[in-house]
Design goal:
single chain; 89 residues; mainly alpha; two-stranded parallel sheet; 4 helices; globular
């Protein structure tokens, strides 16, 4: 007979994977790629200091760990919200 804790963890992992694939499909795709390190700008998570943003950030880190990826956080808070767009010609 299987340990019910193991079954519970499997279900939690499936739920995590489904949530990240739905909410952060590009991030999920990057985690499945061949790169060892994933760079994310810190504004991608918690730019407004909201609890649900912190939760999603934690879930993203856990997802990356499931795929053996290192996460590096770059940038300054709200930097992407105040930066002037650069036009490429």
């Amino acid at each position: 007979m299987a340990d019910t804790r193991d079954e519970g963890l499997v279900e939690k992992e499936k739920a995590l994977v489904a949530e990240i694939e739905t909410l952060l499909p590009d991030f999920a795709r990057s985690c499945r790629g061949s790169e060892d390190v994933i760079l994310i700008h810190q504004d991608s998570f918690a730019a407004d200091y909201e609890d649900h943003e912190y939760t999603l950030f934690g879930k993203a880190i856990k997802f990356a760990g499931l795929h053996g990826k290192e996460i590096r956080v770059i940038g300054r808070n709200r930097e992407t919200l105040t930066a002037k767009p650069a036009f490429v010609q």
